[in-house]
Amino acid sequence: MSLRAVLGYVGLLVLAVLWLLPLGAWAGADFPHHMLRHMGLVAIVTPLLVVGFPQATRLFALSPLAGAAVEFVVVWGWHLPGLHGWADGGGAGLVLEQGSFAIAGLLVWAGALRADQPLAGAGGLLLTSMHMTLLGALIILAPRDLYAEICGRAPDLDAQQLGGLLMLGIGTPVYLVAGLVLVARALDDERGLA
After folding, report:
1. 28 Ramachandran zone, left/alpha/beta (phi>0; psi -120 to 50)
2. Among residues 64, 74, 151, 187, which one has the fewest Cβ atoms lying within 10 Å of its Cβ?
3. Measured distance between the N- and C-terminal CA atoms of the chain, rounded to whole angstroms
4. CA–CA dist 7, 109 (Å, integer)
5. pLDDT at 73 > cutoff 80
6. How far apart are CA 77 and CA 15, in angstroms?
7. Is residue 51 pLDDT above 70, yes or no?
């Protein structure tokens, strides 16, 4: 089995862990669990699937900018209190939220990792990193729990801030490192042509 395939299967394993293990009990609150699942899906699972199964994920390889734009709309949309509350209730809302996160993540990573456009891919990852960092910072710095009332639970600003920190701590380094790898690849390609 190739290293690529192993990475794809690791992505599937991480996906199973995110959905099958009682992470909510370990996280101690709903919002950090939500953010761990969300960031695991878009920043860990989907890039591993794209690298591991390039043929199966090829149809998601649109332009890096289009992928970043779709992910922006999806991620910010699902973090509006009304949509977040619907997804927090489980059922169709949760399935639609997680499915759209997965598709958006696949669009970002499949577009960014296309071998023919490493600088465009780095740009798409930079844009994604910027909007994720901004959203994480807004969640951390909010003066009150944004989601407690709509989700029908007691306010827990500490849990919300932990969720924002998870968004920053997972997303920012993953997108930044991947973007730098793509820039290095582009520079190596240019040196090879010279």
Report:
1. left
2. 187
3. 36
4. 14
5. yes
6. 22
7. yes
